[in-house]
Write a structure and sequence with these properties.
Chain lengths: ~375, ~325
């Protein structure tokens, strides 16, 4: 019963993920019905909220941007054979890095210099925060799943301490830094499109979207078109065989975790440089965990991750709209659905496989008989 | 030091540690059988909601407790179905359960009680009151003992004592019974257990059953003994801290107990030191409370890295067992 089942490729790549997604949606629909709402109506309103207007679409893309970063972060580590649950903490540190750079370099230089420096700082801080669990895994054998969870809590304590004691703007009541100087503001999409003569509503969507697309393309090229990416995947596939083939697994663990952390760190660019223009607590709000779901449904492939990030962006935006429109509907329904998707597409991904294999045998038999 | 302060610290350490101890024991059971449990947080949270919702709707303490146990058990059975019956990824499953619990508890809470996800406050009849208050009163006049024992150790709710008694209970089960030996063997070498004619699946399901019930108790502690109602995300990372404590206690019930007490003590101290100034000898300024709160996680990482002793996981932890012929 628990033996792995062989499926034809189109079923494994195309049908099985859809079946799993449908199962998750079905259970979510039951929950929606239990709380007394009409699942079909909820789904329609959700789609309308997410895609029905230029503003809604912009919010969807804004959320999706963050999820592309955290999803790619999970995927790169996964291809290196590591499960990085620390996206949350790495994103916090990335935000810290880009904020420090903004406050330090912002007053002295123009955006053409400050913004790239902020991106670099976000990546370096995120990578450094992921490198510690990576090194502990590579040299001390401490399991990266546990250490990255611990590092999430340590990151949140560190950020809280820094904000309360060191970085807090003395003139402000809330726990946040002073606003970034103008040169550290990443332009919004409405500004860019406005410059091109297109009228677009003002939303949090900003140029990080292009950064996310670039990141997805680069990760794709790195993993499947470069020697370094091949080595990383080789270690993820079989550390012993890769080691025998002359690849040092320790270096690859560090590379995978470093890249993963750098990608997660970019969340800070979208949320802080693009929207908040200051460092505050809780700007990551679970995006690191959503990245796990995104990577799982996207099957750890950049194309899949972009699609899955859009799905989750739509769910978050549509969910927020729904919470306004339907009293009694809460955004936490989206968290529930996210959990169900992780359950069915991740932990129970192969549960439906035997049934599909059976289906395939039934469908394939007449064709085989005709050949005989 | 002031005796009343010591008594107070002991009392709050025990109170804070109780859900940690119950959860850490749950983790010991499942992980010693070879099943990773990252879903402690979710199991505890949804059980807490079940206790809060049932208590508010029925006004019955017994039913509230039962609901928490049933929910904890049910989630552990999902865990078993995905990871033991099918070879699902145990880490992913834990994340899934935690997300589902975080979302579902609020969705149902808002729909049923319309208080922003909270459940209505429970009356005293539905809550677990303090035990041994009479003995505490009697000791009041005695110097030192009155404050430390009476104020610190007596007058807690029954779940505090239940958690403390369950530690030797789980130890006895794991190390002094045949079932415990088999359970530990399943976590180290399932093929051998299989060859001995025992069911690896059955043993792991049994371990998960105990795990779910303990998580249910941990969840009900939060609602029936500590808070007066369920509040969204009220577990606030306690499940992960319990996991850290279990690792810090080297996958052993007694070790886990000491780790939970240490972590609970740090938490109790951190709450007390909020806003207190450091002595001038240490440079003055506010006590870095966040540093104390992060200490359990830092200590666990340091231990895992092998810098203070060695904490070794069961050999077959996280590896699904596939029966071959």
């Amino acid at each position: 019963m628990s033996q792995p089942v062989e499926l034809p490729r189109w079923m494994d790549v195309g049908l099985l993920p859809l079946v799993n997604l449908a199962l998750a949606l079905a259970v979510a629909a039951i929950v929606v019905a239990v709380v007394g709402l009409n699942p079909l109506q909820v789904l329609t309103l959700l789609a309308k909220g997410a895609f029905g207007s230029a503003a809604g679409l912009s919010y969807t893309l804004y959320y999706a941007t963050t999820f592309v970063f955290t999803g790619l972060a999970v995927a790169v580590a996964f291809h290196g054979g590591l499960f990085n649950i620390g996206g949350e903490g790495q994103a916090m540190l990335g935000g810290l890095g880009c904020s420090l750079m903004a406050l330090w370099a912002g007053p002295h230089a123009g955006p053409a210099l400050v913004l790239p420096l902020m991106v670099a700082a976000a990546m370096v801080f995120g990578a450094a925060w992921a490198a510690v669990p990576g090194a502990l895994q590579a040299w001390r054998g401490s399991h990266v799943v546990i250490t990255t969870i611990m590092f999430n809590f340590i990151a949140s304590a560190l950020l809280a301490w820094l904000l309360v004691n060191v970085l807090k703007d003395p003139g402000s009541m809330s726990v946040e830094t002073a606003a970034f100087p103008e040169s550290a503001h990443l332009p919004g999409m409405h500004q860019l499109l406005g410059a091109l003569g297109i009228d677009w509503p003002r939303t949090p969507l900003n140029l990080s979207l292009l950064l996310a697309v670039a990141a997805a393309v680069l990760v794709q090229l790195f993993l499947w078109r470069s020697r370094a990416g091949y080595e990383l995947r080789a270690v993820g596939f079989s550390p012993d065989a890769a080691h025998y083939g002359g690849i040092r697994p320790r270096g690859q663990v560090m590379l995978a975790m470093g890249l993963s952390g750098a990608l997660a760190g970019l969340v800070g660019i979208n949320e802080l440089a693009g929207v908040q223009h200051r460092l505050l607590l809780d700007f990551v709000v679970g995006a690191g965990f959503t990245g796990i779901a995104v990577s799982l449904i996207g099957r750890n492939h950049p194309v899949g991750i972009v699609l899955a990030a859009l799905l989750f962006g739509a769910l978050f935006q549509g969910g927020a709209e729904l919470a306004f429109e339907i009293p009694g509907f809460s955004r936490d329904m989206v968290t529930t659905l996210q959990g169900l998707i992780v359950l069915f597409s991740g932990a129970m991904a192969q549960v439906a496989a035997p049934a599909l294999a059976q289906l395939h045998r039934v469908l394939a038999r007449p064709a085989g008989a005709a050949h005989g | 030091m002031d005796e009343a302060l010591i008594g107070g610290l002991i009392a709050s350490t025990l109170r804070v540690s109780t859900p940690l101890i119950l959860c850490a024991l749950a983790a010991v059971l499942s992980e010693r059988s070879g099943v990773i449990d990252l879903g402690l947080e979710g199991k505890m949270l949804l059980s807490a909601f079940a206790a809060g919702a049932t208590g508010a709707l029925t006004g019955s303490l017994g039913l509230a407790l039962l609901a928490a146990l049933v929910v904890g058990f049910a989630l552990s059975m999902v865990h078993g179905y995905a990871c033991v019956s099918h070879t699902g990824d145990q880490v992913v499953l834990g994340m899934a359960l935690t997300m589902i619990a975080a979302g579902l508890s609020v969705v149902l809470g808002i729909a049923w009680f319309k208080q922003g996800g909270q459940t209505p406050p429970l009356s005293d009849a539905v809550r677990l009151g303090p035990w041994f208050t009479g003995a505490g009163e009697a000791l009041k006049g005695v110097p030192v003992v009155g404050a430390v024992v009476g104020g610190g150790l007596l007058g807690h709710n029954p779940l505090v004592y239940a958690a403390l008694l369950l530690v030797p209970g789980v130890w006895w089960l794991l190390y002094r019974t045949r079932a415990g030996l088999r359970l530990r063997a399943t976590g180290e070498n399932p093929a051998m257990v299989d060859a001995a004619g025992l069911s690896v699946k059955g043993l792991r399901y049994a371990a998960l059953a105990g795990n779910g019930l303990l998580c249910g108790l941990a969840g009900s502690t939060l609602v029936l003994a500590q808070n007066a109602n369920f509040v969204p995300n009220m577990t606030a990372g306690r499940g992960y801290m319990a996991l850290a404590a279990m690792i810090f206690g080297k996958w052993h019930p007694v070790g886990a107990l000491w780790a939970c007490l240490l972590f609970g003590f740090l938490d109790a101290v951190a709450i007390r030191l909020q806003g207190v100034a450091l002595p001038a000898a240490l440079g003055g300024g506010a006590v870095p409370v966040q540093a104390i709160q992060a200490l359990p996680y830092v200590l666990t990482v340091v231990l895992l890295a092998g810098f203070i002793g060695r904490s070794r996981a069961p050999a077959a932890l996280g590896v699904p067992y596939i029966k071959t012929r």
